[in-house]
Automatic annotation (TrEMBL):
Protein name as annotated: Transglutaminase-like domain-containing protein
Top-level taxon: Eukaryota
Cited InterPro entries: Papain-like_cys_pep_sf (IPR038765), Transglut-like_Superfamily_Mod (IPR053041)
SUPFAM superfamilies: Cysteine proteinases
Family annotation (Gene3D superfamilies): 3.10.620.30
Organism this protein belongs to: Lottia gigantea (Giant owl limpet)
């Protein structure tokens, strides 16, 4: 699982050339083509790699507090839909988000006349085997069992919780008080 995650997050998909015509689905270039043509995504690609390696893996569908999320807003399925994976390791399901893991940072260069985004492809370890108690702050599965929490959250709790990012948990921080995004 580690090797697959590191490999897939190291692929600069946006910079890669892909054929104009749809390649055969059994060829590796198909997954690059599918992502570039909005017919596939990282979770599907990761899942196929896991299946080829005989690693149990599922695609989880849900809502994300990603780059388009504004603090305090409702997290609508059509605007905030996302997919990520769970893999079975030693009898325990663990989370992997290869898409979020592929982009450690975004640099924004702004001038008066235009704005440019440069994606930096650097593996973000925070999305490899992420603890469910941390993942729930940004990823809300459609099926409550895939929260992997003893006490699953409701969508209302997810929407109202503080908007913490992965660095918050990376620094070993936690919320002892003021757990809502709007106070």
């Amino acid at each position: 699982v580690r090797a697959l995650y590191r490999w897939i997050t190291a692929q600069p998909v946006d910079m890669m050339l892909a054929p104009r015509n749809k390649p055969s689905t059994n060829k590796p270039i198909y997954h690059i083509w599918a992502i570039k043509n909005s017919e596939g995504n990282y979770s599907q690609w990761f899942s196929k790699l896991c299946r080829a390696a005989k690693i149990p893996c599922v695609i989880i569908h849900g809502r994300l507090k990603g780059s388009s999320y504004q603090v305090g807003q409702s997290v609508f399925e059509d605007e905030h839909y996302g997919e990520w994976n769970a893999v079975l390791i030693d009898g325990v399901w663990r989370f992997v988000d290869a898409y979020w893991g592929a982009f450690k940072s975004q640099n924004r260069l702004e001038s008066r006349s235009s704005s440019h985004k440069t994606l930096t492809y650097t593996c973000d370890e925070n999305y490899f085997l992420t603890d469910p108690s941390e993942m729930i702050y940004s990823h809300y599965p459609e099926v409550p069992e895939w929260q992997l929490l003893q006490y699953p959250w409701t969508i209302n709790k997810f929407e109202s919780c503080a908007n913490t990012k992965d660095r918050f948990f990376e620094l070993g921080m936690s919320l002892d008080s003021h757990k809502k995004c709007v106070i």
